Amino acid sequence: MRRTVAVLTGMVLAVVATACGGDRGQPRGTPATSPSGVVERPAPGDHRLTLAHGGTDRSYLLHAPPGYDPARPTALVIALHFYPGNGARLRKTAGLDAVADRENFLVAYPDGRNGGFNALICCGTTDDVGFLRDLTAHLVRTWRVDPDRVYLTGISNGGDMSFRAAVEAEGLFAAIGVVSGGYSGPRTAPESYVPRRPVSVITFIGGQDRYAEVFTEGVRTWQRRLRCTPVPAAPPAGAPRVTRTDARCGDGSDVTVYSLPDMGHSWPGAPGGELAAPDAGLDATALVWDFFAAHPRRR
After folding, report:
1. Integer distance in angstroms from the first to the last C-alpha of the chain?
2. How much is the pLDDT for 299?
């Protein structure tokens, strides 16, 4: 028994060390520092801002589309970067600004502390769930964000953080979009570690990702715990090797899983930037937004 415990403990520590070492498909490096915040005036355009949280100023980029009107409620997508990274680097990869300009929603790109977010298996000890709560509350109050249309997306460490916030920031996010990230690690071990209010999920898993089995098992556990049952799903157009599964959960939330057998630890369809997979066969950014638009917060 002692030998078994020791082996399992070693495996857990190895996974944690690997993830916190930046080996989620991302080379080591020192993330660039975002410029300090400026006077905040809600208006269309790109804004470099800060928000005081936990005794420090947290920086983030905010993109407001040309059609943004501070007098009208607006949807918000918060996008979380890989480790090590920052919001500006994810912004180049995800291409969310162009979709926001067309569909008229706000996009916030927060910077993690020391290049990462305190997610499920990595990185640091910062209260990032609290930060995301405060950031959302600030944008609802100052930028007239519609609280029923607040969404969270992320890749790798940012995808893990999306799952954590979906559970712990109760009632805040209507849906999450997880790219090459997962629901795993010691924090997720209790059966009770699931959202208490409905949070729909769309996720993308590359078959060549070294973490593919972890991500797949994690979403299966999520669906089992939330009593999700399969529903018919249309195959992805123009991507014959990509599969899609849909499920409806007991709380009314939905789960959509895209499995891309030829993709590694990447963002499907991203034309450039870090972790881009332009030839993956589908456009994750467009699919994430379409999923979000169809899933406002359930009351």
Report:
1. 47
2. 72
Burial of residue 44 (number of CB atoms within 10 Å: 0-12, 13-18, 19+):
middle
Q: Exposed, middle or buried, 190 (CB in 10 Å: 0-12/13-18/19+)?
A: exposed
Point out the residues of the chain with pLDDT beneath 70: 1-39
Contacts 24+ apart (CB under 8 A), 285-291: 285/94, 285/95, 285/96, 285/99, 286/99, 287/202, 287/258, 288/153, 288/177, 288/179, 288/202, 289/77, 289/96, 289/99, 289/103, 289/105, 291/175, 291/177, 291/200, 291/202, 291/256
What the block records as the tokens of 19 is: 């993830």
Q: Residue with structure tokens 């990595």?
A: 122
106-110/56-64 β-pairing: antiparallel
Q: Which amino acid is at 2?
A: R
Distances (CA, A) of 289 to 45, 64, 134, 147, 165: 20, 16, 23, 17, 19
Question: What's the pLDDT score for residue 42?
Answer: 96
* Residue pLDDT, tens place only, 175-190: 999 999 999 999 999 9
Distance CA 94, CA 114 (A): 21
Residue 261 makes CB contacts below 8 A (sequence gap 6+) with: 206, 207, 208, 241, 242
Q: How high is the pLDDT of residue 252?
A: 97
Residue among 143, 202, 198 nearest 174 (CA) = 198
Tens digit of each residue's pLDDT (9 = 90 or more) over 90-138: 999 999 999 999 999 999 999 999 999 999 999 999 999 999 999 999 9
Query: Are the CB atoms for 240 and 261 separated by under 8 Å?
Result: no
Query: C-alpha dihedral over 288, 222, 90, 171, to 10 degrees?
Result: 80
Q: At 28, which amino acid appears?
A: R
